[in-house]
Amino acid sequence: MIWRRLPLVLTIIVLGNLVSFYKIVTSPRVYQSSAVIQIETPAAIDGGGDASLPASRRVQLIEQRLMARTNILDVIHRLHLFEDTPGLSESDKIAAVRVSTRIESITTPGVSSESRMSLAAIVITSQAGTPEMAAAIANDFADSVVNRDRENRQARITEARQYLTTEETRLGAELADTDRQLAEFSSKNEDALPSSQEYIQSESTQLNEAENSLDREIMALQRDQLTLETGSADNNGRSSASLVQQIRSAEVELAQARRTLAPEHPEIKRLEESLKRLNSGGQAVSDMVRQHMQLLDEQLRQLNVQKQAIQHRREEIEKARAEMPQIAHDLENMTRQQRRLQDRYAEISRQLAQVETQQMLMDNDQAERFVLLERALPPEYAAMSNRKKSAVLGLFATFAASFGLAFALELLNPVLRRSSQFARATGTQPVVSLTYRPSRREIRIARLKIVYMAVLLVVGLFVALWLIGKIPGLPSPGMVSTGTERLGS
């Protein structure tokens, strides 16, 4: 079957392989270069920065910063990419750069991936159509990471510090205002505060005792007034007895005053003068009685004023006790607001102290740093691509297609060509089997097939050598730049 269909099989194999060669040599060559960035972690770990994140998250943040639209456009403008393709849209250019750039992380051995110290290095790999451009793109991204890292950290710290300082000032003013309102409220409602109830109860008891004492003093003064009034109403026959009583009373009052007052006190002098006038029996007895009555009236007035003050204070206490539940509720709300502001102020102060620590670490060069450990160099050879795989797959595909077509054509023309085929088909063994003798026409056709196959092999070999660039003077089509090679233009 293969011999009879050899021209067809050979034609499919040669054409298929030539097509595979063309696809292979015209596919763009891709050069790949990598830059390595080392992560230097200081002894004092910055707990509030990016270093506290897991390695996977940190690499993701770095990749997002590098692959941002504005950053990629800056790279394209700096390196003059896509100059030979002015019709290419901006989105296509950005997509091509993103596809050709890869960022990988190298973790520290023996450290969990969720640890903040697990990231050891970052590898930035770029692909382009020329070795120089691949190295230039990788180095540009690496320089962007190294040079902008400190600027980004400083900008974040400055922004956070400004915000926290402003927030701390605002909360401080609000907390001071709340403290002032709470103090004024407590001073205004001091009697109704829960903390004053024990004192108010003790004061009520003291007020009751003081009022009872005043009542007793008022009653004693009223008895003295009654005695004087009774004595002044007697007739003249009893004036001597009344005078003796007045003298005794003046002596008693003088003795009591001397025990309680200083010797130079005006009251003592007045009592002494009154006693002298009584002893002399002058006409001033009636004046002394009148003055004594005025003194008793004044004492009664003062005692009544004190009693009214006690009653007024008792009314204030009763009013405060009635307002106690509402005052306690308002006080609890104000206290809760004060505690909430204090907690927020403490949290803002803690964050501000943390930001100031980060600033101090950066100023002392103790923060995490990105160091360009190995710059990207132009590669000497193109990166491993799918060319060999495509060649092998194309070879197998052409062989399979040629043999499959030959087998299909053989099935479409089922001819018994040997005695064994005849015996299997009919179940009868042939008696005589003669060798087929081709005609002159068939012999000529067979010779033409041989010439065709020879010419096909020669032409196929020539085209294959031309495709791989082995024929001097004929440029290979593989020199045409397409696809990824545009990135290196």
Kindly summarize this structure in a few lines.
By secondary structure, this protein is of the alpha+beta class.
Give a written overview of the molecule.
- This protein has 489 residues and is of the alpha+beta class.
- Among the domains are: 110 residues, no CATH class; 130 residues.
- It is 67% helix and 7% strand.
- The chain has twelve helices and four strands, in the order αβαααββαααααβααα.
- The protein has a four-stranded antiparallel beta sheet.
- Helix 1 packs parallel to helix 12, helix 3 crosses helix 4 and helix 5 runs antiparallel to helix 9.
- The longest helix has 79 residues.
- About 3% of the residues have low confidence.
- Keywords: Coiled coil, Membrane, Transmembrane, Transmembrane helix.
- This is Lipopolysaccharide biosynthesis protein.
- It comes from Paracoccus broussonetiae.
Residues in β-strands, percent: 5-15%
Q: Look at the structure and give the mean pLDDT.
A: 76
**Largest sheet, if any?**
4 strands, antiparallel
* General form: rod-shaped
> Uncertain runs with pLDDT below 50, 5 residues or more?
234-241, 479-486
SS content category:
alpha+beta
Written as H for each helix and E for each strand, in order along the chain, the element string is HEHHHEEHHHHHEHHH
- Helix share, percent: 55-70%
Count helical runs: 12
Number of strands: 4
The oligomeric state is: single chain
Biggest sheet strand order reads 2-3-1-4
How far apart the termini lie comes to 53 Å
Rg, Cα atoms, Å:
59 Å
Protein name: Lipopolysaccharide biosynthesis protein
Keywords: Coiled coil, Membrane, Transmembrane, Transmembrane helix
InterPro entries: Bact_polysacc_biosynth/exp
